[in-house]
Amino acid sequence: MSNNMSSKELLAKVELALDKNYQSHALPHSNRTIATWYLLAVLEDNLRLLFVGADDSKSSLVDHLLDAYKYSARFALDRIRRECHDTSKVAIPTKIVPRVYVQTGELLRAGTDYMAANRLCSAAHAKTLGLIEGAETIEVEFDADDHDMRYSTVELLGHMPPDFLDHTTRLYHWARNEEFRPEIVEIISQTTHIAGGKVAYEFHVYPAVKLAESLEQYPFLVPDRWRFAWGSREETTLLLNALCIRCVYHWCAVHFGASSHGLKGVGQESLLFVTNAQQLAADLREMCSLELPTIRKFIEYLTLGHGVQAPDPALQPIVPLGEGRIAIPCLLFLSSNYERNLLTLQARVDTPAFDRLSGLFEEVMVSGLLPLAKKRWPSTKGNVTIRDGKEFEEIDLLVPDPESKTLLVCELRWMLQPGDPREVHNRKKVCREKVAQLERKMRWLNVRKAIALQTLGLNADGANEWHYAGVVSVDAYGGVLSPNSELPLLPNNIFKQGLEKASSLSEFVSWSRSLRWLPKEDEHFRIVTQTTKLPGFDKPLVTLGIEKLCSPTTYSEFVVRSLEQESI
To answer: Taking the model in full, what pTM does it have?
Structure first.
């Protein structure tokens, strides 16, 4: 391979080699239904093996693979739709053939490598990194500002409250530690029996209700006045809770039931939840008490391929299996951010409705920040318009501290958490646009200090003695390094911590600009290398990734300590 090859030529050849490498892994079967069933059944068993087989010290690896397997499943399902032309009627397999299991597992693992490479190539097309052919490897040259690993770690740590235990975390602990397992799980396992080598059970509402008592309610993301095709946020919560409980019930029945019966393979043929839309609707109705037409709309919306050109099982986890059958890969679904995924799906299926309602998120952000800021700085105002004759600027949040003569100008933005490399690039672009907007507003306000103070009901005498500072806060996304060091960009949860814990507004400004609150390498994350062999190349592709080294709670405590250090 010539060292004189241009970066563009090298990228094209690497992409071709990556595609060839992934395509070299065979699909499970030529029949579309059987191939789909095998893929999802082996996926679920592989995810379960992460739960019961991984060392506790590898919990961050479990999180990473749960996410990576979602992408892998999407890639494989895309191939099945394109390549499996046999759509004849078939029965669902009752036994997994070991050879096909191994073959499917290799396909899934190849998909996780393909995911990492896909992200890399997307970034290369966006010109935020380049490929360099060295003497022994093909390596990646990053734009350090665009790919700041600290901000990437914030995104990796997630946006749930630090002490929240999601459903898959509970299943992880239940599967590994009997003492953490609620009694109802044992009761459900005792209702199972073995029929034809598979775990069989009847779904009952009372155990489902008791099971729900062992699960936490997910924090609400969807605003109160939001509407989906099936109804309101309240109805959405009922439907999501019902579907989650149904999936947890199935997983517990199969895993713990198979274990109690000593079933070989621990029920791997039964882990994939296979039912039909009518039965699923009836099961959900038992738990949510909504009308069947509402439930059917919800099920239809979450069925893979409905209303979209690029189906994604992370967004639509109900997968058709022909003959009226549907399958739900329970761990894939349960490890998702349900409300975020519904919003992402709505943005794709019904863009006008999503755009029409999206302003509600900024309202929620302001309503969450305003009382927090007003408690310490009573003259704070949200959604304030500053007027100077015919000119005006709208400020999302304006926080004045008369004691330190500091006025904080806040630009707020809620955004959907990105799901693929293209969306990541777009989110970063929006973040930088918000910084540019804040720069413009700061310039405008800097020569109108007295007007701004009067708008807040403050004495404008000595207005020029006030120090103006700015910050961009984004919600539901980790963010990106600000191109202006004087105008830092903070995730909304960290912004809240700063407003609440800083000893003064001027201290908050200094702390936010210092970036001391960002995760530290080798304490909160480490950079890992991944090597991929490329067909037609005598050199492997070496890429970089991030491994979490801490929990969200540990990082949240670090943020508070960084504030305390600021005041020393």
So the answer is: 0.94
